[in-house]
Amino acid sequence: MSSFKESRHLYHFAGLFVLAFLVFLVVRHYYVPKSFGEYGHYRGAAIGEIASLPVKFAGHQTCEGCHTDVLDVKSKGKHAHVNCEACHGALANHADDPSIKPVLPDTTLLCARCHTASAAKPKGFPQVVPADHSGGVPCQTCHNPHSPAMDGGGAK
Amino acid sequence: MNVSRRQMLILLPAAAVAWKSVLAGTPEDSPNYRMSDHWWGMLIDIPKCIGCGNCVRACATENDVPDGHFRTWVERYNVSDEDMTNPHVISPDGGKEGFPVAEEDGEKYFFVPKMCNHCADSPCTQVCPVGATFIAPDGVVLVDQKYCLGCAYCVQACPYGCRYIHPQKEVADKCTLCYHRITKGLTTACCEACPTGARQLVDLKNPNDPIHEFLKTHSVQILKPQMATGAKAFYNGLDGSVR
Predict the structure, then answer these.
(1) B8 reaches A (C-beta below 8 A)
(2) How many domains does chain A have?
(3) Least C-beta-crowded within 10 Å: which of A94, A132, B128, B210?
(4) What is the pTM for the complete model shown?
(5) Bridge partners for B41 per DSSP
């Protein structure tokens, strides 16, 4: 009989545990974000947040929608597969609002970035030593950047 | 409708789970994008890379990458015939402004663009103690910057050195494979800016993607295959000296 009396303490103790567990569940409900565990052990809503960041490079498809004249020249030349923003830089702001005029790149620097001769570049890639090639004369004096080959009708 | 007590006990939690996902809504900002239709990766064609640094600059612009940190960078390898295991590697400012001219001295030189490999079994996501970094259902490894504590476990865990702690935000930052672009049908900023096609975004779940034919017909490697990371940055023409 006495052993039964003692076991009441255990019930109190168990009650405390159950209460603590319920408090834990309530706190957890408010602190764990709603989408946590939607796809795995992470906040599912984070995917949408990252996907909705703003775009800065408009993409060549966007450029080609308006600048069809440049596309006609470029698609026949050696730079057919060089995307517009590879040289002109990120221009999503210009695509959104054409009144924002992009700055024309400086061909002396721009062309040299790719075409300066170096042993590390692939052998078939057209390379020149700029000082010997033009002696400081800007590239577009002779070449059309959109179709640079001299024999392809692209030269000025 | 007669529902027994047993059926009710089964139905109620199921209904609760379903309602939860209805309330959460669809996560994609792009209405036509379905995560389950894609499994993204990248093809890097070493023999096409000219080391111009366009990818590094484009990435920094597109993603506001802080100076001195890189989500993608380019390395120039210099390997001599006698010592293949000790290549001389340079990457001045990540190759952002190109590289010094390499003279023809009979040694081998080539460029290796590097970036997050978006591993299918990524070590970085496994070590995160809070679930702030994860592999999205379309195979892109992302960081939830609102949840990240900045403990940098993931920075140490990445065998490719592709993560850093953002100096202002003080959370982990890395390549998102331009997730905000690829979910809208665009390619990544680095691929858009690459003048030679040395980098190509690939979707392994798209049966019409040329990557399937490419992988079949070329000698393609991944970096550190012995780490069993399931890396999805496929390198064509990778030299054995690259680490």
Answers:
(1) no
(2) 2
(3) A132
(4) 0.86
(5) B202
